[in-house]
Amino acid sequence: MSGFLGFLAFLALIAVAGYFKAKRRANSMPRIRLSKEVQKRSTDIKEAPVLTQGSIPSSEWNPALDELRQLPQTAITAGLIAALPCLAKELYREAEKSVKALGVSDPSFADCIFDLKLVGVFDKTVDFTKDFNLASLFVDAMVFKAIGKTPTEPTPADMNAGLTHRFRGVRKYAIARKYLPVRDPGALLFGQEFAKAKGNGLNQADVDRGVLAALYTRQSGAWAAETALTGRVPTTEEFDAFEKAIATMGSAELVSKSKSIQE
Questions:
Q1: Quick one: which of 185, 182, 246, 194 has its CA closest to 219?
Q2: For residue 181, what is the DSSP state?
Q3: What digits encode the pLDDT tens for the residues 118-128?
Q4: How far does CA 27 lie from the centroid of its chain?
Q5: H helices of the chain, where?
Q6: What are the residue boundaries of the structural domains of the chain, listed by start?
Q7: What's the DSSP call for residue 44?
């Protein structure tokens, strides 16, 4: 198990490293200064343009991003618009790498991994904006940017039938709290999606492994979003504390509760 945790930790770090690599390629990407610490890291600051539908090529049209562009262009909204393309691309690229790394043969499972990363992105975006609507628009726009689909929401019947893997975005994770009364319903939901993707139904060993993978996957999205929006990189101390929290209280308790809810 310790080897598996170490491997997941490696995957979590890849997302942040991948973002920086892509950012170096995107020389024209605007940056927003938010603090003295960020100012020291930031160079070449530009204003994000206010675009209208007529000025955007149809191939680049994005419904949620359009709503962001129509809002008053503050430093916050400009920062979201600037960060979105690179962050969406890199998180989905890492999701695709994780499919094979986690032993799933179906490449479409990258969509499920990406959905979970966006939960972490949403949490950090709320911290950044102090606005749930802005955070929702941001993650919805990332779904469309990465896979060309608008976010969808499962019905109660879909939830009960275990069909959440067919739905994109973070809304299924909000709904999961009503159906999975465990300490971390999001981790269990992903664990179930992972188990089904492995092809053995809700095999308990696969569910447990997916629960652990969920903790790192979600956190990697949060770290990448924080880096993209503020320039702040997670410290070694923070990473070590995260791993310690999982080792001492997280995984065993979550897995135990996930068993009880399925029986």
A1: 246
A2: -
A3: 999 999 999 99
A4: 24
A5: 2-25, 36-41, 63-70, 75-101, 110-129, 132-147, 156-160, 171-179, 185-198, 204-230, 236-245, 251-262
A6: 2-262
A7: S
pTM for the whole structure? 0.78
Structure tokens at 6: 């170490």
Quick one: CA dihedral 186, 244, 135, 100, positive or negative? negative
Would the pLDDT of 153 be above 60? yes
Q: Which DSSP state fits 71?
A: S
Which residues have a Cβ under 8 Å from the Cβ of 159 and sit 6 or more positions away? 172, 175, 176, 179
DSSP labels, 73-105:
--HHHHHHHHHHHHHHHHHHHHHHHHHHHTT--
Q: How far is CA 111 from CA 3, 7, 92, 166, 237, in A?
A: 25, 21, 8, 9, 31
The pLDDT confidence band at residue 38, using thresholds 50, 70 and 90, is: very low
Burial environment of residue 252 by CB neighbours within 10 A (0 to 12, 13 to 18, 19 or more)? middle
